Amino acid sequence: MPLRPPAVFIETFGCQMNEYDTELVRSILKDSGYRFTDSADTADVVLLNTCAIRENAHNKVYGHLGALKALKEDKGLVIGVLGCMAQNLKKDLLEENSLIDVLAGPDSYRALPELLEKAAAGRKGMAVDLSEYETYTDITPDRIEGVAAWIAVMRGCDNFCTFCVVPYTRGRERSRELDGVVREAEALAASGCKQVTLLGQNVNSYRDGTHDFADLLLAVAEVRGIERVRFISPHPKDFPEKLLEAVAGHPRICKHIHLPLQTGNDRILQLMDRTYTRAEYLALVDQIRTRCPEIILTTDIIAGFCSETDKEFADTEDLLREVEYHLAYIFQYSERKNTIAARKYADDVPAGVKAARVTKLVEFQRGISLKKNLEMIGKTVEVLVEGEGKRSRDQWMGRTGGNIVTVFPKTDTSLKPGSLTSVRITDATVTTLYGEAV
Length: 438
Ligand code: SAH
Ligand code: SF4
Ligand code: F3S
Fold this sequence. Notes:
The strands form five sheets. Strands 2-1-3-4-5-6 form a six-stranded parallel β-sheet, with helices on both faces. The protein has a five-stranded mixed beta barrel with strand order 15-16-17-19-18. The chain has a three-stranded parallel β-sheet with strand order 7-10-11, with helices on both faces. The chain is built from 13 helices and 19 strands. It has helices at 16-31, 55-75, 90-94, 112-120, 166-170, 178-190, 213-221, 241-249, 266-272, 278-291, 310-323, 340-344, 351-374, and strands spanning 7-12, 35-36, 45-50, 78-83, 102-104, 125-127, 148-152, 154-155, 174-175, 195-199, 228-232, 256-258, 296-303, 327-332, 380-388, 395-400, 405-409, 420-428, 432-437. By secondary structure, the chain is α/β, with parallel strands linked by helices. Among the domains are: 7-127, Methylthiotransferase, N-terminal domain (Rossmann fold, 3-Layer(aba) Sandwich), CATH 3.40.50; 380-437, CATH 2.40.50. Residues 157, 159-161, 164, 166-167, 201-202, 235 line the site of iron/sulfur cluster.
């Protein structure tokens, strides 16, 4: 190790799981004597923690790599690519003029200190093997202290939805033990954190040999000092009654369920191998709303999957109309190498048609989101204050239990980030509620 510890800059792309992994990587590197900096210009090592879920996620990373070229030539920057794209980049690394010195996949972060040391001495290296066991449960993530934190409770995915690259980039499902997760939540609470979000690709598959996900959620909700518990994502194919009871019945479990639909058409659902039908999904929504009427539902949609016709696409729009989600993330289908869909089906919906379908759904959903938010006017909601509003330092910004951003004037001087307060809603836009503390 040189006299001055090398400075690392990490940039994170993709989902919350990657955000969490970046915190693990920071912890591993800190223990090996590295320090951190907040820009590539002041760094000795730049790490990109990458996402492979859609083509544009890929392109973003290539764009950033290109921008680092000059810095690398100037001052011999070490460049590492971590995360879900690492697997796909093996070939590039081996090419002679590649900018990349180090590759590490999601299960190989313990190897990073050694890989970086070798890279500093001019030897490129990679660690991209997937593990059936690695959960990093003994590593305490190095977090930016704040009101909210993520905890990964399981890693990997065994579902193999035909469109999805995650089972290939993150490997097989494995869960952490309940005790380890609870201890992490307790440590977070002791450091002032008020909200934890439990993360997994399909949290309903969580199993530690003794406990299922509902047990885990309830145990975390009982940790003293944790005011709110969230989770993402459950898969609609196996949403147990016990989990619904936990969400509906526990005051500190947020009344918000993100329930990825993907498509409202049965033939496309089958091609995606989602293993539920439109009718089964709608029955689940009904069951959830009957047991917990105040629940906020959100979803993910893919438009333009292989062979989707206009008529089949219309089934998705129709389902959005019927369910009226509070929010929907709408993506155009992006073929990923090696997935089942890439091997079995033609990516035959023209790009223009895909884009038009996304635009149509986004517009349609905006109308519903606005309507839902306007319905909140006059109601009083509980908001967890996260910080100052973006537009004005005289306002607080926080979220409702349903995860809706809420902005209100700083009239109550006793509030601070981490405070829970009641806010009466007076106005709303598609994305934000406005109100006053009561
Ligand atoms: N495990 C989570 C999803 C993680 S990926 C779950 O099943 O809920 C997040 C979202 O990205 C998915 O729900 C899906 O809507 C979208 N997605 C995944 N693969 C995609 C692809 N090839 N093209 C477009 N969108 C995709
Ligand atoms: Fe991908 Fe399906 Fe696993 Fe979600 S459940 S990560 S969409 S394979
Ligand atoms: Fe997340 Fe992207 Fe990997 S969504 S799991 S970082 S492919």
